[in-house]
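Training component of the fellowship. As part of building independent skills, the fellow (R.M.) carried out the full modelling exercise for a liganded target. The chosen ligand was nicotinic acid. The inputs are recorded below so that the supervisory panel can assess the work.
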Amino acid sequence: MTLRDGDRDALHRVLRARRDVRTGFVDTPVDDERLHRVLEAAHAAPSVGFSQPWDFLLVRSPELRDELAQLAEHQRQEFAASLPAARARRFAGLRVEAIREAPLGIVVTCDPTRGGRHVLGRHTQPRMAAHSVAGAVQNLWLAARAEELGVGWVSFFRERELAALLGRRVGMPQHLEVVAYLCVGHVAEFAAEPELATAGWAHRRPLAWAVHEEIWGHHRMDPLDETLAALADLDTAPGEAAAREHLTRMTVPPGALGGVAEIGVRLAGLAGACPPPLPEPAVVAVFAGDHGVHARGVTPWPQEVTAQMVATFLAGGAAVNAFAATVGAEVQVVDVGVAVELEAAPGLLPRKVRAGTRDMTVEPAMTRDEARAALRAGIEAARDLVTAGNRLLVTGDMGIANTTPSAALVAAFTGAGAETVTGRGTGIDDATHARKVAVVAEALALHRPDPADPLGTLAAVGGLEHAGLAGFLLGAAALRTPVVLDGVVSGAAALAAAALAPTASHAWIAGHRSVEPAHTLALEHLGLAPTLDLGLRVGEGTGALLAVPVVTAAARALADVATFDAAGVTEKELE
Ligand SMILES: Cc1cc2ncn([C@H]3O[C@H](COP(=O)(O)O)[C@@H](O)[C@H]3O)c2cc1C
Ligand SMILES: O=C(O)c1cccnc1
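Fellow's submitted model of the complex:
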């Protein structure tokens, strides 16, 4: 079969115009000829060993569709209950199925026994049977689009529950896997963008992030270079000016919103618009790593506590979880450098660059390449979390001994001495503190880090979580997404990030001021005013999370507070 002129363009038009449709189905029945062409397209799909493991069950019965819709509704409620509060609010407005509205349902199944024992290619990869069926679904979907039929793939079913119902009601054999339930029908219109993108639930990733050139992680443009280039052009002035002008017209006395107004201005600057979008949902990314300098006795806690606390975060039992639940935020742990292997778990991003740093009093804590890899991991974490629909990022840290490299970084970037920057971390006695000051001084004397070389400084006296956090702060700013900074570890990372790209700090809000002396110095150097000052010295993201409602209120004030004009409130007379 040869292709004709125009086929390529037609194919790409159909590919781009295909939508996953959950809303806007109309009653018009699907005629048999169209349906036949669509099913033929599905049946023409490639399959493992040419096993063609698919079957198509056509469901028109309103009664059966109603029962299926009830199953899906139940799963929807379970999913909603599992979400952090701000995500759940967003989810409440989304449609996930149109089982009753679409006049036709197509159940697409996979028969893992089709073709007998010797299906070529399935002997090594049994999942290939189901993957083949997914290819048939995609063919069906594209052909349906070409026939002006909408398709929505519903997976809000527990697989066994769905199979059991279909077994009872239509005699579906129980050795089959249900790969897809498709809602099919004519639609009022095809949306230009995916419904979930329009709703802001998630965004499309640029193709370049997904393409690796020869070596994993090598993209046509290096993520760090790409981020720094984007930040060079970050102009927040127009949005800031719009917010300042709007503030003068809001029904509050001039200046009375104090620091809250300043946060609003920052958000508007970053968004390039006033009012800025509501900064929710929020997610805290807890960057975790271990430290070679632990061997020098700078903390009374054993190194294992880092991994144990990560397990506690993932189990939901730490301070960060309690505070995140309070403000409705999600918790993600990013392992950039924990000393031991961590088991895969929901909420854990495995991005280990190495198993802990080297002892900075003996040699550089990391190589420059390792520091760069951790920066990249941080940038990519920010990209992931922003494209997943988060509108506010929050920093956190976990790493026994990490207040020591934090002090060294703050000393390097501010010029302050070891005795000024070195605090008591988790709470250490005088003897340990004296040793810690000496260790910081020793590392600084050994490396003489140059603040004009932020990568070298991070590598010499930083931690993997500091480098990861620095990347995260840059990545978020490049995507014009605000970040709330936690304590001294985030502050030290922010100094490195600001040295790499000064404009990035426009995206940052200091969540709180910790009792660590280096944190105060870092905030002063960054020109950031802390939102809260509660005497916290935990890390993990705790202080930053508590500031999230203040940040949200700042955005909401710009959106919701009436102007003198609109409310008919008389303005003050000239003095
Ligand atoms: C149980 C426990 C929970 C923590 N959560 C945060 N950190 C905080 O304390 C550590 C840094 O302090 P230092 O430099 O004195 O070791 C980091 O892990 C930081 O996240 C904790 C520390 C401990 C012991
Ligand atoms: O204030 C902080 O950020 C801090 C203090 C002690 C230990 N870890 C973090």
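The panel noted the following from the submitted structure. Residues 371 and 459 are 5 Å apart (CA to CA). The longest strand covers residues 177-186.
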